[in-house]
Design brief:
alpha+beta; Nucleoside Triphosphate Pyrophosphohydrolase; 2 domains; 10 helices
């Protein structure tokens, strides 16, 4: 068991390295090396999943993000899926899960953002790859996914519960490097791959709700929880909206810190919750991002965000 983070430097060419740093004390340098070398050369930059992620606009400051909240409407699944939604709730409640509030995108993903209240179970019940027959066999045909059923019923994919997520574009060492993570196996979003860290806001919309104030506190809490970064140690800069038609829409948040990824790994080394989400942190110089994308399988939405930001 290692008491300090272990590091492995993977050469990307031209004297540029991808640095892998352990959060899980059980990992050795050999483990880190095998993690990367086993996936080297398996990037899939022409995948449909990447093509399904659409850039929808940017603002230079979070405070400039315009949001309209519809307090008159709460998301309801299409009536054809209500039996599956009921089964999702029964199954999830039995496992001790919670139908947390989420911000559902109303209409197109664009500026200004239009949001309404929804619940996490709504997202699960309309997730395109799920098979309703698995939980409600009496109501749905065997083997057919939500996406296939939507096609048969003539329901637009935008009618699913597309909740707003956050992706953390964490730039370290005062702008010199980018922080990425090895997402843990079994995560609901982006399991077992290189990606951004991220979170799901859980706002409860009421009259007078302060969306920007809520989100700033949410971001502060998430940066503390994930990396033990305090508000005075980072700045929140630009916000970039993306519509992932296979997953969920999200805002990519530019977050800048003078801290190094190594120092962040030291702070959370051995932390059970951190390991559960990302057992390894990665650090790459900004000039090495393209090499990472062309070498390793990176989560599709992360690829599209980095391509967009590099070309702005």
């Amino acid at each position: 068991m290692n008491t300090k983070p272990i590091t492995y430097n993977h050469h990307l060419g031209g004297g540029i390295y991808l640095e892998a740093i352990s959060v899980d004390p059980k990992l050795t340098e050999r483990d880190l090396a095998e993690l990367l070398t086993s996936k080297e050369g398996t990037a899939q930059l022409e995948s449909d999943a990447i093509a399904c992620v659409r850039y929808a606009g940017s603002v230079d400051r979070f405070s400039d993000l315009s949001v309209h909240i519809n307090l008159e409407r709460t998301y309801v699944v299409p009536p054809q899926l209500q039996a599956y939604r009921d089964a999702v709730q029964k199954n999830s409640d039995a496992k001790g899960r919670y139908n947390g509030p989420v911000a559902i995108i109303e209409g197109a993903v664009e500026m200004p953002l239009r949001l309404m209240q929804g619940g996490y179970y709504d997202f699960i019940a309309t997730k395109l790859g799920n098979v309703p027959h698995d939980l409600a066999p009496e109501s749905y045909p065997s083997g057919k996914t939500v996406a296939e059923l939507f096609g048969e019923w003539g329901i637009d994919r935008e009618d699913r519960a597309r909740y707003l997520g956050f992706a953390q574009v964490l730039v370290t060492e005062s702008g010199a490097k980018l922080n990425l993570v090895q997402r843990a196996k079994g995560m609901a979003i982006a399991p077992d791959c290189i990606a951004f860290s991220g979170s799901t806001p859980n706002p409860k919309f009421v009259p007078g709700f302060d969306f920007h104030g809520y989100c700033r506190q949410h971001i502060n809490d998430e940066m503390d929880e994930e990396f033990q970064l305090k508000p005075e140690e980072f700045t929140l800069a630009g916000v970039h909206l993306f519509d992932d038609r296979l997953q969920s829409p999200f805002a990519a948040l530019e977050i800048n810190t003078p801290q190094s990824t190594r120092s962040l790994a030291e702070r959370i080394h051995g932390d059970a919750q951190a390991i559960k989400e990302h057992p390894v942190l990665y650090s790459v110089p900004l000039e090495g991002i393209d090499a990472v994308l062309n070498t390793f399988p990176v989560f599709p939405s992360t690829v599209q965000v980095l391509r967009t930001l590099m070309n702005r």
